[in-house]
Amino acid sequence: MSLWQLRLSMLGTLAIIISLSTLFFTAVLLFVFQTFDLLLLGIFVIGFNIIQWLIAPYLIDAMYRAREVTPSEKPQLHAMVERLSQKSGLKMPRVMVAKIPIPNAFAYGSPITGSRVAVTSELLNTLEDEEVEAVIGHELGHLKHRDVQVMMFVSILPAIFYFIGYSMIWSSSFRRRDEGGSGAAAIGMVSMLMYFILTMFTLYLSRLREYFADRHSASIVEDGPRKLSEGLAKIVDYTHKMKHSRKNNVGTVGSFKALFISDPDRVEADSAAISGAVGSRTDQRLVENVLTKEVTALDRLAELFSTHPNIVKRLRALQNLT
């Protein structure tokens, strides 16, 4: 997929999410209040989103045991982030290290906390320095494209529809038909359908933005496509191994998985693509093995429900940037 196709798909998906949400919220307000109140609609949607955005960094820090590290603690990591931030035209974000048992990285922040880039301690232990550099380039791409703000906004909309649907269906069970019970039940079921549809569009938008962040890393890191490809393949491989050896710990890290550079919940599917390369002599051989795999119909179906692209498709897209 070319750059203009990615941009067109992203803008089109955003337009669909916003349009469907606005139309349905309007219909709900007309049914409940017998009037159209644009101000109420805006306050309800925007206010909910802003509150979540402001407090999310605190939740993430607590959940993933992320703490800021100083230049004296991690001089090489700080130097990487500072150099790549300058190349990206970004203000230096706060550098965080998360104590979770998988190799991964994520970018997040809010107006209260500022921007943050976090790597897990396991990532620093697993990847080579050049691969860590490419991963950081990817995360800075998310900050450059304001993905944190965009995904926070679109992710809250399906949740609101779920809340409306659940509330309407629940309340309809206590109303007689002549009291609007059937109408409330209909709105509830349609809300649940809208929740599913918007969730699918939100997941698609998330996958598109991963491609954009990959492109950004390739543009600011020397030999970026190779370094990021190797890093991603190794992350999937090591996460798969850890998921079997540390089931109790690894299974608890997926709450904010859309932030990660690689989805830990896809590790079983993605690891199948690199299983034949386990024990390869070089990291590049690991990547080459992935590129020979065929993306099956089952793989494409599984990808629809993922925040991240299929690993084979993702590495092929990176190869096209070389």
Describe the structure in your own words.
With 322 residues, the protein is of the alpha+beta class. The chain has one domain. A 4-stranded mixed sheet has the order 1-2-4-3, with helices on both faces. Helix 3 crosses helix 5 and helix 6 packs antiparallel against helix 7.
Provide key terms for this protein:
single chain; about 325 residues; alpha+beta; four-stranded mixed β-sheet; 13 helices; about 70% helix; about 5% strand; globular
| SSE string, helices as H and strands as E | HHEHEEEHHHHHHHHHH
Unreliable stretches, pLDDT < 50, 5 or more residues?
A: none
Note the beta-strand portion.
5-15%
Major β-sheet profile: 4 strands, mixed
- Helix/strand structural class: alpha+beta
N/C terminus separation: 14 Å
The number of distinct β-strands equals 4
Radius of gyration: 21 Å
Instruction: Estimate the helix proportion, in percent.
Output: 55-70%
What's the structural domain tally? 1
Strand order in the sheet with the most strands: 1-2-4-3
Q: What is the arithmetic mean of pLDDT?
A: 79
How would you sum up the global shape?
Answer: globular
Total number of helices: 13
Secondary structure topology:
Blueprint: H1 3-33, H2 38-64, E1 66-68, H3 75-88, E2 94-98, E3 105-110, E4 114-120, H4 121-126, H5 129-144, H6 147-172, H7 181-220, H8 224-245, H9 247-250, H10 267-274, H11 283-291, H12 297-304, H13 311-319
Parallel strand pairs: 2-4
Antiparallel strand pairs: 1-2, 3-4
Helix pairs in contact: 1-7, 2-6, 3-5, 5-7, 5-8, 6-7, 8-10, 8-11, 8-13
